[in-house]
Amino acid sequence: MAEDNNQSAGAQAAAEGEKPQLKFSLQRIYVKDISFESPNSPAVFQQAFKPKVSLDLNTSSQKVDDNLYEVVVKVTAQVKDNETEMTSFLAEIEQAGLFRISGIEGAQLDQTLGAFCPNLLFPYARECVDNLVNRGGFPPLMLAPVNFEAMYAQKKQREAQQAEQTQ
């Protein structure tokens, strides 16, 4: 009898137009694209390794299907010799994930795709870059953790400033 009351209460809540239940699940993590170049080898191995690291980090997302989104974290690490500016290596990876998300809309969905999902993917991208660089014959490149919430906030601030300037 109590089960009948719970089921009818749930049906009544749905009929009254309550918000749908929030659902979030990670479906798959995968490498979408990977590249490693060492254009000046073997010469780079014949001198002292004095690296100067340049790091570029971007995120993107797209809707794949109903409630299914692909999020991509792209990491580009370029290492040059600090004195000669000779490129030691260039490592690029696009770490991606498929996320099933429902009950989240608008700005909250945008923030989930732009900050929360990249936070889940970045440790995989870090490990992949480190492994790739190591396989290229160079010392490990341990990337520092990234605050995607702050990156997302900066992106939104830039968009708001651009919108003001166009008005």
UniProtKB/TrEMBL annotation:
Protein's job: One of the proteins required for the normal export of preproteins out of the cell cytoplasm. It is a molecular chaperone that binds to a subset of precursor proteins, maintaining them in a translocation-competent state. It also specifically binds to its receptor SecA.
Description of how the protein assembles with itself and partners: Homotetramer, a dimer of dimers. One homotetramer interacts with 1 SecA dimer.
Keywords associated with the record: Chaperone, Cytoplasm, Protein transport, Translocation, Transport
Family listed: Belongs to the SecB family.
Pfam families, per database record: SecB
Protein name per the record: Protein-export protein SecB
Transmembrane segments: none
Lineage: Bacteria, Pseudomonadati, Pseudomonadota, Gammaproteobacteria, Oceanospirillales
GO molecular function annotation: unfolded protein binding
Species in which this protein is naturally found: Vreelandella rituensis
Record-level GO BP terms: protein folding; protein tetramerization; protein transport
Domain of life: Bacteria
NCBIfam families listed in its UniProt record: PRK05751.1-4 (NF004393), secB (TIGR00809)
Any one annotated GO CC term: cytoplasm
Localization (cell): Cytoplasm
